[in-house]
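Operator note (shift B, R.M.): manual run for ATP synthase subunit delta requested after the automated queue skipped it. Running by hand, logging everything below so the morning shift can see what happened. Input copied straight from the record, untouched. If output looks odd, do not overwrite the archive copy; leave it for review.
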Amino acid sequence: MEPAAIREAYAPVQRQLDELAGGTDSARLREIADEILTVARLLSREPGLRRALADVSRPTVVRVDLLRRLLGGKVGNETLALLTDLVSGRWARPSELLNATERLGADLLLAAAEREGELAEVEDELFRFGQIVESNMRLGLALGDSTVEVERRAELVRSLLEGKAKPVTVRLAELALTGFGGRSLLTSLTRLVELAAARRGASVAYVVMASAPTEAEERTLADKLAQMYGRQVSLKVEVKPEVIGGVSVRVGSDLYDGTVQRRLAEARTTLAR
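Run finished. Output pasted below as returned.
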């Protein structure tokens, strides 16, 4: 979970984004997202600019004027308005402004998927892509190699996903390559899955089982978790035969591990004492 100060600084932007998403078609939302993410790449390359725009010792009007002189005529009015709200926020570190800019781009892409009725599918596709990357060591190393240009790795992502996943999924997977929010590739994908679920008003439950559950079992588990947490829960199920039996469920920082593998490990620890 993000610190309260960061959530507070991002809140005005979130409100403006939600208003924009309510009356803007998905194609335009994707265009605005691309403009925002282009600015994020600029901030990533230019630490001096990041510092200048995030420096709360400088009056807000000065920081906003710098932004407008830099981007005026180069991005759309909606993009400039959103970035103005970002720069007007109080960021403890320049990296927080960069992370918020990336987050804004991701949120706009998710809003576009929502407008198209594809948000749940994008969420599932990002999760499945993360599973593929995690299970294939060579692929994970190739995509996570920061010594290779991002565009070359993005080409690999597109070759794997284009025509098989939604365009927003492909774009978000490309964003994850850059270390979204300063994270690793897999952690970036996980964060994007959770942002997609949050936009649907849901929490994500990561479930590990020895064999695939039936649809009825998934519904029962989802209903029980929804009752526990007081909100919709989106299950992300991973099948791992090595757990032998039982189920492990993680929601946020809460872990419920009832697998046979865990019980055997506890028994071995007890016997070794």
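Quick read of the result: The mean pLDDT is 93. DSSP finds 13 helices and four strands in the chain.
Leaving this for review. - R.M.
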